[in-house]
Design goal:
Protein name: Spore coat polysaccharide biosynthesis protein SpsC
CATH superfamily of the largest domain: Type I PLP-dependent aspartate aminotransferase-like (Major domain)
Distance between the termini: 23 Å
Helix content: 40-55%
Order of helices and strands: HHEHEHEHEHEEEEEHHHHEEEHHHEH
CATH topology of the largest domain: Aspartate Aminotransferase, domain 2
Organism: candidate division WWE3 bacterium RIFCSPHIGHO2_01_FULL_35_17
GO molecular function: pyridoxal phosphate binding; transaminase activity
Oligomer: single chain
Pfam family, one: DegT_DnrJ_EryC1
Family: Belongs to the DegT/DnrJ/EryC1 family.
Radius of gyration: 21 Å
């Protein structure tokens, strides 16, 4: 049996939506983007949402639109895109420790690393579980800092009944491994109208009105840049996928939660591993299902799983502070973040997607049990 790490949950609705856009001839930013943005904002519980070509672009744009040039605090235990966005936008990433149990940012370490140069906190909601956003929000308010939520892995996740991406500026990913997909794509969420307008302008070459808006004006050809912008727009074609995917997001997340509960039940007696835990006041949406090795060889177990057709992986190894660019520029070394490094060397990501069958889940359980020592 072969079980992929993830699998997009697609049906005829998505195929028909794409077909309709192709027939319309309007392939760039257009009506489907606007529909997707409206529905997404309503789902998250914010006033505005903007489609982009990736979450990396969303993070970069958030930093640029806020004119951040100082320090941004984030965990080292994340995908490099989080730190890269800060670096390429002209700010400085400052790494923090995490909570070993959840993989999420450590509040006390955030406080320790705030300086006069700190301008923002970037909590990364790991694997589908929200950070403790009430405490982070309170700290940010007290220290007058922006919050940029890296919600790439947490669409639909909640903290105290509020969706991630509604506490600060939310940045989401629609990569095929995520809770919904548009192939490639991202979204920014905000309640700030001025910021919303600036983001729209920045991602469209610095021009304040899109083609679909200008087409109704007397001079639709008039395109004047008010900012030195970028081209980070999502196409109407990909947005049509997003519209259909969003309609079944809650169903897909419910299936992920169901599968995770089943795996937890079947693996809970294994003393050699630690299972993912949904902490109080959080709603976990299991973009990834991760286990931690308490003893034994993590890399060998991943290899054994792959040999048996289970496409297990590791998220994230190495952590960002031990990646060559950041080591060379900032002088980070092994031992700087011991909890992060411990998690990075013990974690395994097992396959997780909505349409997993009981047969696949049972096979995965069997292989894990038979190959852990």
């Amino acid at each position: 049996m072969k079980i992929p790490l993830s699998k997009p949950y697609l049906n005829q609705k998505e195929f028909q939506a794409v077909k309709q856009v192709l027939k319309s001839g309007w392939l760039t930013y257009g009506p489907k983007n606007q529909e997707f943005e409206k529905n997404f904002a309503e789902y998250i519980g914010v006033k505005y949402a903007v489609t982009l070509n990736s979450c990396a672009s969303a993070l970069f744009t958030a930093i640029k639109s806020l004119e951040i040039t100082g320090e941004v605090i984030l965990p080292s235990f994340t995908f490099s895109a989080s730190a890269n966005a800060i670096e390429t936008a002209g700010a400085k990433p400052v790494f923090t420790e995490i909570n070993y149990e959840t993989g999420n940012i450590d509040l006390k370490d955030i406080e320790r690393r705030i300086t006069k140069k700190t301008q923002a906190i970037m909590p990364v909601h790991f694997a589908g579980q929200s950070c403790k956003m009430d405490k982070i929000t309170a700290l940010a308010k007290k220290r007058k800092l922006f919050i940029i939520e890296d919600s790439a892995e947490a669409l639909g996740a909640e903290w105290q009944d509020r969706k991630t991406g509604s506490f600060g500026i939310g940045c989401f990913s629609f990569f095929p491994t995520k809770n919904i997909t548009t192939g490639e794509g991202g979204m920014i969420t905000t309640n700030d109208e001025k910021l919303f307008q600036k983001i729209k302008t920045l991602i469209g070459h610095g021009i304040s009105k899109s083609t679909s808006q200008r087409v109704r004006e007397q001079k639709p050809w008039f395109r004047a840049a008010v900012l030195a912008g970028y081209n980070f727009r999502m196409s109407n074609l990909l947005a049509s996928l997003g519209v259909e995917q969003l309609k079944k997001l809650d169903k897909m997340n419910d299936l992920r939660r169901k599968h995770a509960a089943y795996l937890n039940k079947k693996l809970k007696d294994l003393k050699q591993i630690e299972l993912p835990k949904e902490i109080p006041q959080a709603k976990h949406v299991y973009q990834m299902y991760t286990i931690k090795i308490r003893r034994g060889n993590r890399d060998l177990l991943v290899k054994k799983l792959k040999e048996k057709g289970i496409e297990a992986s590791v998220h994230f190894d190495p952590p960002v502070h031990l990646q060559p660019y950041y080591q060379k520029k900032y002088g980070y070394k092994h031992g700087d973040f011991p909890i992060t490094e411990k998690l990075s060397s013990s974690i395994i990501t097992l396959p997780m997607f909505p349409q997993m069958t009981k047969k696949e889940l049972d096979y995965m359980v069997s292989v894990v049990r038979n190959n852990i020592y």
